[in-house]
């Protein structure tokens, strides 16, 4: 088989890396890829942007691609699946109607209400004055969300009314037409990614991302500063509840609307101290950096699962198999991220890393011909281990050996979970 992976981040590097482990996959083309994807066996990059559908299709047809795997949310929201399917090509990823689940938080909230999925109380606004009045009435803390895609940075947790009012003004000024304002939930966040063929849903190992730029979860939101899996906060009992109370009802509600959703269904959850859950948001693609810790633990060939979704035969697939242990990932970022940051900083030290349990997934890199930074999140330093402390130790031993000017990373990824790993066994 030949596979086209659309995207350029750490998630796409991880997808190509995992697909290349299957003997069924003859060649992988990444568009546009990055400095790391080109090092994956049997993988080449083509310099085509994720929104240039015509150029992507020309390559796919010329190379006789058997499966297109779409990484980022933007091309899905723009209708890349519809475009490729119209040309008779197999695509893993929902169509434009299904991608509304991530592209519009207001639409997703309405769908959750129709499906009976537990979520935070909220209201949607297209007018700043009405939004401000609602915040004044509700008080703080409160959460202000951009309705559209914002690269993981469109959520502001306002600790005061004045902060919420500033967030409203800022997001409308950025050009978002609709805002969703919702109650502040207390608890621990977790991510459950699932695969679906539009009827059957198979959840993957739960993961936990670290969104804030600063240690102890402080500062503005980012695209993700690190992750680990499995997340102990999602117990086996709670995972079954996510399947029955969240994932299956949403797929059923999508189907009732005539939406044939085949791809990743990603539920961002808040789990309160009593173990009750509410959905914070849905995403329509593999999470980043959650993918970088889930895929290293996956024993079932990824290509088998993706094809089963596309060909609508997930029900006949054997149960998904997993390796034992844990995986952890810490993201190294450019100075200034998530604000403005420089590009073209030389990266060194990767060639001296020597640990079979360690993989560095590239996110914002390119080869010119030396390896340099090209994005805010630059590298995903990932390791597997017998348990989470072991995996984290491997990552944090490797990070000081890597260098680019101003490199920053959080030093507390997974610390809250280590205590839970000591308290309970994971199954």
What does this entry look like structurally?
With 427 residues, this protein is an alpha+beta fold. It has helices at residues 10-19, 53-62, 73-78, 80-86, 96-103, 105-115, 128-138, 161-173, 236-256, 290-294, 302-310, 388-398, 415-423, and strands at residues 2-7, 27-32, 43-45, 67-70, 91-92, 122-125, 142-146, 155-158, 179-183, 188-196, 201-203, 208-209, 212-214, 218-221, 226-229, 263-271, 277-283, 326-333, 358-362, 365-367, 371-373, 377-385. The chain is built from 13 helices and 22 strands. The strands form 6 sheets. It has a 5-stranded parallel sheet, with helices on both faces. A 5-stranded antiparallel sheet has the order 12-15-18-22-19. A 4-stranded antiparallel sheet has the order 6-9-7-8, with helices on both faces. It is globular, with a radius of gyration of 21 Å.
Write the layout of secondary structure elements.
Elements: E1 2-7, H1 10-19, E2 27-32, E3 43-45, H2 53-62, E4 67-70, H3 73-78, H4 80-86, E5 91-92, H5 96-103, H6 105-115, E6 122-125, H7 128-138, E7 142-146, E8 155-158, H8 161-173, E9 179-183, E10 188-196, E11 201-203, E12 208-209, E13 212-214, E14 218-221, E15 226-229, H9 236-256, E16 263-271, E17 277-283, H10 290-294, H11 302-310, E18 326-333, E19 358-362, E20 365-367, E21 371-373, E22 377-385, H12 388-398, H13 415-423
Parallel strand pairs: 1-2, 1-4, 2-3, 4-5
Antiparallel strand pairs: 6-9, 7-8, 7-9, 10-11, 10-16, 12-15, 13-14, 15-18, 16-17, 18-22, 19-22, 20-21
Helix pairs in contact: 5-6, 6-9, 7-8
